[in-house]
Write a structure and sequence with these properties.
The complex is a heterotrimer. By secondary structure, chain A is an alpha+beta fold. Chain A is built from nine helices and 20 strands. Chain B is mainly alpha-helical. Chain C is globular and about 70 Å long. Chain C contains eleven helices and no strands. The chains are: A alpha+beta, B mainly alpha, C mainly alpha. Chains in contact: A-B, B-C. Chains B and C meet through helix 1, helix 3, helix 4, helix 5 and helix 7 of B and helix 1, helix 3, helix 4, helix 5 and helix 6 of C.
Chain lengths: 357, 270, 256
């Protein structure tokens, strides 16, 4: 296991009487690509601003490489930020923008020139030294913002929704670009986004946040396949979240029908929530399914068909490469390992899940 | 549709009440009473009396502009950091005095500055030396600063509030301390506001004749006083126009300067 | 510490801006006719004010000119904005440049240039010449406050109105006009204020028989200003102050 680079301990922050972060604990390992993911107002940007030194937490400590930097001003911290909407200095050329941090540190001119060349090459914008930020496209400005930050060789790079202002195609290209950069530079990235796809694509670790609380920390696969509560399941991808009863280990009753599953240790006759991803719902002949239903909606989505099936009073969302016309009677089957059992959320999470709808 | 037609009345207005009148000033300035072409009226600026008036005007207006800038910049910074939705309140503070007649407001400084006036009473109470600036150039500078300070504050305030707070954060993030951030980022980004403020203070200060009449006694003649007298007392419109052309050259220079720095015309907003 | 320094600085500037105003208000209650001496509290200047026909005439002229010039400038300015907006970029730049001349030029030059124009046209100097002059210097302020709103307009809404069958007139008044209305109103107020406070341009374009408050005060400067003038200014200032406080209060109470 790699060394811990940053440790956030018991961080709380409120604006006025609105609590934004409540006793947040989080550590980030060296060379990790960690994403803070959540809806707007979940506290992810505040967390980033506390790391960057632009906000002071009301309670708690920020530990960076073993040192308490909670009260260290932003300009003294060994980390750099890529801001939302780039925040380039519009009165300076691209070269001057990139050189800003190095000039402050009184680096020699030849060192600075080399660094500018290197950084521009790294972000694929050779020869842009003399241009002004206004004359660049959004994607190019974004690359400059990244170049401006990384020439300072920070241990940690904070990225605040850096791709939010770009269009879809460009965003996807930049995602690969960022992964490449991270691997080439070998520095730690903390990335803030509300886009779950972005988070799944790029991260080593995802921290799902809502209403100032961490909901789940884990690898993208784990977050997607084994969401710990209804909020995470709902926020990450489409899913069928159904109230159910755990009859005993490996057997759960969903909407009156008994399904085999693989989870154990929830107790007997315990109310739980189950998550079933739409691509895991198999449509079979009515008599072969565990539950019987009727297709009510059908949309062609390119890689698959999206269908809604009314079965046992619940509208199931189904993704399948096989088409079933509206009105078709079908049976629903789910493989045991595709049924994810979760404890009923605590009241706060429940509220959060509802708010998100 | 007839949007082209819509512009006609305004084009007519511009021609009739802006361009033609200016042309008349130029015409009168370069002709004599018989209508013959002459440069005498413009060259009259070189006479001792006129050049002295112009020189004092330039000096006093430059000093006032500088004082306005020094007073206004910190003020604008403080105001810009105040609550965001107080914009209208800020503008209000500076517009409100205009509802009290500006001649009266300027006159009131006489009362305040007099030998046994309010200010000197306060100074005496504090055992400070008395301020005897009434009817001196200092009083005129004070009047200029007083009247034109809002024209400096508002454009600078506007340009400061337009700076994205993240740009300031970015400078700090890259290691700049408060001073560096100000010199390298805040100040350069507020240059359009500063230039616009300078234009809006310098031009009225350079050309005023009222402030000097009210606060300078009748001892100090500014170029504005000279021109005003040519029109309302001496009745030599040709000479007055000639001197106005000289003034306009300064103004034009100032306008070009502000046009270069303020491409969108943003800073001019009152 | 820093906050205290900031507060002191703002307070000092505030005193600087408002000291003369307080002085004038105090003088309006001064029984002594001299500006320099305090002769006890009196309300007699307020009583005399309403008997002084000269001052009341000047007040009426000032208000009428301010209202008419601001109103006409607002109409012309609004139409001009629509026209400017639909122009090609180069023409627009030129026209906006010309528009700004009265605002950026020295008032004395604007004043004498209009004076020369009226002389050449052989006009009688009086109410009309003052009014025309005030409209001229008010227009740029109106355009300046409408133009930003105009730029923010989404052209599609106007086209949507046309698409839904509205005439150009109808589309303008039901879609564009409400959007730029705040700009129009603030432009009107700005113009009204500017006109009210103007002296220099009025000075050059007025005739012998007519006075606004400004020109009346200017002629009184040499022989001593009548205290009734202080009383009148105090009344105007306090009226505006009260109005502004009321206007600023009312929307906030709705929020609570």
């Amino acid at each position: 296991m790699k060394d811990v680079l940053v440790n956030l301990e018991h961080i709380s922050k409120s604006y006025g009487n609105q609590l934004v972060l409540d006793d947040l604990n989080l550590y980030i390992r060296e060379n990790e690509f960690l994403t803070l993911l959540g809806p707007s107002g979940c506290g992810k940007t505040t967390t980033l601003r506390i790391l960057g030194g632009f906000e002071q937490p009301d309670k708690g400590r920020v530990i960076f490489e073993g040192q308490d930097i909670t009260n260290l001003p932003a300009n003294k911290r060994q980390l750099n930020t890529v801001f939302q909407k780039y925040a380039l200095f519009t009165h300076m050329t691209i070269a001057e923008n990139i050189a800003f941090g190095l000039k402050i540190k009184n680096k020699s001119k030849s060192y600075i020139d080399d660094k500018i060349k290197y950084a521009l090459k790294l972000v694929n914008l050779d020869g842009f030294e003399k241009r002004m930020p206004d004359s660049l496209s959004g994607g190019q400005q974004q690359r400059i913002a990244i170049a401006r930050a990384i020439v300072n060789e920070p241990k940690l790079l904070l990225l605040d929704e850096p791709l939010g202002a770009l269009d879809l195609k460009l965003r996807q290209d930049m995602q690969y670009e960022l992964i490449r950069l991270k691997n080439e530079l070998g520095i730690t990235f903390i990335y803030v986004t509300h886009d779950q796809e972005e988070a799944l694509t790029m991260s080593d670790t995802i921290v799902v946040m809502n209403q100032g609380y961490i909901q789940q920390i884990g690898s993208p696969e784990r977050i997607y396949n084994e969401p710990e509560n209804a909020f995470v399941a709902d926020f990450i991808g489409d899913s069928n979240i159904i109230g159910a009863t755990m009859i005993r280990d490996r057997l759960v009753e969903i909407l009156g029908a008994k399904f085999d599953c693989v989870d154990e240790g929830f107790g007997e006759n315990k109310p739980v929530d189950v998550v079933i991803r739409p691509e895991d719902v198999m449509l079979v002949k009515p008599e072969e399914g565990t539950i019987e239903g009727v297709v009510t909606h059908l949309i062609f989505k390119g890689v698959h068909y999206e269908m809604e099936v009314m079965a046992a009073g619940f509208e199931w969302l189904v993704h399948s490469t096989q088409m079933c016309a509206v009105g078709t009677k079908v049976g629903i089957k789910v493989d045991p390992f595709n049924i994810q059992i979760m404890n009923k959320p605590e009241s706060e999470d429940e509220e959060a899940a509802k708010l998100d709808e | 549709m007839n949007k082209k037609m819509l512009s006609l009345p305004y084009l007519f207005w511009c021609a009739a009440f802006i361009l033609i009148p200016l042309f008349m000033v130029v015409y009168y300035g370069i002709t004599d009473k018989t209508g013959a072409f002459t440069l005498e009226n413009i060259c009259a600026i070189a006479t001792a009396e006129h050049s002295k008036a112009l020189w004092i005007s330039i000096l006093l207006s430059l000093i006032s502009t500088l004082i306005c800038l020094l007073l206004a910049y910190p003020l604008a910074m403080i105001l810009a950091h105040m609550n965001v939705n107080q914009h209208s309140f800020v503008v209000l503070i500076f517009i409100l005095p205009m509802w009290m007649n500006f001649l009266l407001r300027t006159m009131a400084w006489q009362t305040l500055l007099e030998k046994s006036g309010v200010i000197n009473s306060v100074l005496e109470f504090l055992h400070l030396p008395a301020l005897n600036i009434i009817n001196t150039p200092s009083a005129i500078i004070l009047g200029m600063v007083y009247n034109f300070l809002p024209f400096m504050v508002l454009p600078i305030y506007n340009s400061l509030t337009k700076i994205d707070p993240n740009v300031i954060n970015a400078a700090k993030d890259l290691g700049a301390n408060g001073f560096d951030t100000f010199i390298r980022v805040t100040l350069p980004l507020s240059v359009p506001g500063i230039i616009s403020g300078i234009t809006m203070v310098f031009v009225p200060a350079l050309t005023t004749f009222v402030i000097s009449t009210l606060l300078g006694g009748s001892k100090i003649l500014l170029i504005g006083n000279v021109i005003e007298q040519e029109f309302t007392q001496t009745g030599n419109w040709h000479l007055g126009s000639g001197l106005s052309i000289v003034l306009m050259i300064f103004i034009l220079f100032n306008m070009i300067l502000s046009a270069i720095f303020d491409k969108d015309g943003e800073g001019n907003t009152l | 510490m820093r906050n205290a320094a900031k507060k002191i600085y703002i307070t000092l500037i505030f005193i600087f801006l408002y000291a003369p105003i307080v002085t004038l208000i105090v003088l309006s209650f001064n029984a002594s006719k001299s500006r320099a001496k305090w002769g006890g509290f009196t309300l007699k200047w307020y009583q005399n004010l309403f008997k002084n026909q000269d001052i009341l005439n000047a007040l009426w002229n000032t208000l009428l000119i301010a209202f008419l010039s601001a109103f006409i400038a607002t109409v012309i300015g609004t139409i001009a904005c629509i026209a400017i907006q639909s122009m090609k970029k180069r023409n627009r730049t030129i026209l906006i440049g010309i528009t700004n001349i009265p605002m950026l030029n020295a008032e004395i030059v604007t004043g004498i240039s209009l004076m020369l124009l009226f002389i050449v046209l052989g006009m009688n100097f009086g109410f009309l010449t003052i009014l025309l002059a005030h409209i001229t210097f008010n227009i740029p302020y109106v355009i300046l406050s409408i133009m930003p709103r105009m730029k923010q307009l989404n052209p599609s809404t106007y086209e949507a109105a046309l698409d839904l069958g509205a005439s150009h007139m109808k589309a303008f008044f039901s879609v564009t006009f409400p959007d730029i209305l705040p700009g129009i109103l603030s432009g009107f107020l700005m113009a009204f204020t500017m006109s009210l406070d103007d002296f220099i341009i009025t000075h050059f374009t007025k005739g012998p028989g007519i006075d606004t408050l400004s020109t009346k005060i200017y002629t009184e400067v040499k022989k001593g200003i009548k205290p009734e003038m202080y009383a009148l200014s105090t009344l105007i200032f306090l009226t505006v102050l009260v109005l502004l406080i009321l206007v600023n209060r009312s929307p906030k109470e709705k929020d609570v």
